[in-house]
């Protein structure tokens, strides 16, 4: 299932009474494994999915930017002059438009000359669920970044655009995220995952082999919304930075399993458990990539399961709905299951045999109803290609 670029083009025409110059898409992502390791200079292994944010863009002959969307009544507007600054004034960017407008501001910091480019109109459509841990924000930012890279003929490569997206999310939006989400959206390839070293930013696409193994990736969206710009996410990042500082390393990437004995001795219990999650999760990413190469996807289940336990108990970012989804999928015979995304809500994923998808969906829905939880939204996704021009 994907949002149609033609629908976005028609919506643009209806809104602005002209045809767009083009339509660009940015996929959401599932993180197969490697949670909260990205901002610790560690390893992650996400993949782009066949749920997209699509943006239709048409140049204007002035300095104005107008962005409309299927999920907001009125267009958001800004002048390029307000974004052609070193630091954004407080309150300049608000709501959903902070993401695309933040991209414009961030492009300037990587060399785009905003004084010479035209304004534009844009319309956004998306079928990436917001707040589900599937990176709807990165999908939007990457769609806008590749659109403006083409429209303004900037010539930026994918690694640069990934850094643009991260800067926009960190500084314009205020979410202390790493670079994983943008990298997944910009480097994705059909039936492949993106193995990313978040320190060197080296990327490698690794064949997943789900289809050949008779497997599908089931997303179980708990519909418990989360927000990365608030609360627990920032606290976890601060705890990781504290752990690295007390352990005398630049980042937790510099620790390995053998360092955990010293960490347990020198750190308070909470900080130690945060550190243990990052160190063991980095190792699980490396083990997952190695296992996929040598044994195939049916052999990675224990790593997925262990990742969830670590996030639930050591990093404490799960919620009862996520735990129930994971446990129910496991009882239905899933190869492996874990929560995905930043936590505190969002979605869990399960690697499930193709012929057991419906059974697993039904079981999760029944378990949620029995527990008195809001009905989940369960659907399959498939590893997809990267952000780019769609029309």
The CATH class of the largest domain: Alpha Beta
Number of helices: 12
Number of strands: 12
Computed over alpha carbons, the radius of gyration is 21 Å
Q: Given the helix and strand composition, which structural class is it?
A: alpha+beta
**Major sheet attributes:** 8 strands, mixed
Tell me the overall shape: globular
Please indicate the percent range of residues in DSSP E strands (runs of 2 or more). 15-25%
Distance between the termini: 17 Å
Helix percent reads 40-55%
Q: Quote the average pLDDT.
A: 95
What is the fold-level CATH name, i.e. the topology of the largest domain? Ribosomal Protein S5, domain 2
Total number of domains? 2
Low-confidence stretches: none
Q: Write down the secondary-structure element order.
A: HEEEEHHEHHHEEEHHHHHEEHEE
Give a structural overview.
- The protein has 391 residues and is an alpha+beta fold.
- The protein folds into two domains: 5-206 and 385-389, Ribosomal Protein S5, domain 2; 209-381, GHMP kinase, C-terminal domain (Alpha-Beta Plaits).
- The chain contains twelve helices and twelve strands.
- It has helices spanning 5-16, 80-83, 98-109, 136-151, 158-173, 180-187, 232-247, 260-266, 269-294, 301-313, 320-331, 357-371, and strands spanning 22-33, 43-59, 64-69, 72-79, 120-126, 192-197, 203-207, 215-221, 336-340, 347-353, 377-381, 388-389.
- The strands form two sheets. Strands 1, 2, 3, 4, 5, 6, 7 and 12 form an eight-stranded mixed β-sheet that branches. The protein has a four-stranded antiparallel β-sheet with strand order 9-10-8-11.
- Helix 3 packs across helix 5, helix 8 (260-266) runs antiparallel to helix 9 and helix 11 (320-331) crosses helix 12.
- The longest helix has 26 residues, at 269-294.
- It is globular and about 60 Å long.
């Amino acid at each position: 299932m994907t949002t149609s670029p033609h629908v976005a083009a028609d919506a643009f025409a209806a809104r602005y009474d002209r045809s767009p110059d083009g339509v660009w898409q940015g996929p959401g992502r599932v993180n197969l494994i490697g949670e909260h390791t990205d901002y610790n200079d560690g390893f992650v292994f996400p993949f782009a999915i066949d749920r997209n944010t699509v943006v239709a863009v048409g140049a204007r002959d002035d300095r104005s930017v107008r962005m409309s969307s299927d999920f907001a009544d009125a267009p958001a507007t800004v002048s390029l002059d307000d974004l052609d600054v070193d630091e954004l004034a407080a309150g300049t960017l608000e709501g959903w438009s902070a993401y695309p407008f933040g991209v414009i501001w961030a492009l300037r910091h990587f060399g785009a000359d905003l004084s010479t480019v035209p304004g534009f109109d844009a319309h956004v459509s998306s079928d990436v669920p917001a707040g589900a841990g599937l990176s709807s924000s990165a999908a939007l930012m990457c769609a806008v970044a590749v659109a403006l890279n083409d429209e303004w003929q900037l010539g930026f490569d994918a690694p640069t655009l990934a850094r643009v997206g991260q800067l926009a999310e960190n500084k314009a939006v205020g979410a202390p995220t790493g670079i994983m989400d943008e990298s997944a959206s910009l480097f994705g390839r059909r039936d492949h995952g993106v193995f990313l070293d978040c320190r060197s930013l080296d990327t490698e696409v690794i064949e997943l082999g789900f289809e050949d193994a008779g497997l599908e990736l089931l997303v179980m969206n708990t519909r418990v919304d989360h927000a990365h710009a608030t609360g627990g996410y920032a606290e976890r990042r601060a705890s990781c930075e504290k752990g690295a500082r007390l352990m005398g390393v630049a980042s937790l990437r510099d620790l390995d399993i053998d360092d955990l004995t010293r960490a347990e001795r020198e750190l308070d219990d909470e900080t130690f458990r945060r550190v243990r999650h990052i160190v063991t999760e980095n190792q699980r990413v490396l083990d997952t990539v190695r296992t996929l190469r040598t044994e195939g996807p049916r052999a990675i289940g224990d790593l997925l399961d262990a990742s969830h336990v670590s996030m639930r108990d050591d990093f404490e970012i799960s919620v009862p709905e996520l735990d129930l989804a994971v446990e129910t999928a496991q009882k239905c015979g899933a190869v492996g299951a874990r929560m995905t995304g930043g936590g505190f809500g969002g979605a869990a994923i399960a690697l499930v045999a193709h012929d057991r998808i419906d059974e697993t969906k039904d079981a999760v829905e029944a378990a949620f109803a029995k527990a008195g939880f809001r009905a989940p939204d369960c659907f399959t996704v498939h590893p997809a290609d990267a952000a780019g021009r769609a029309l």
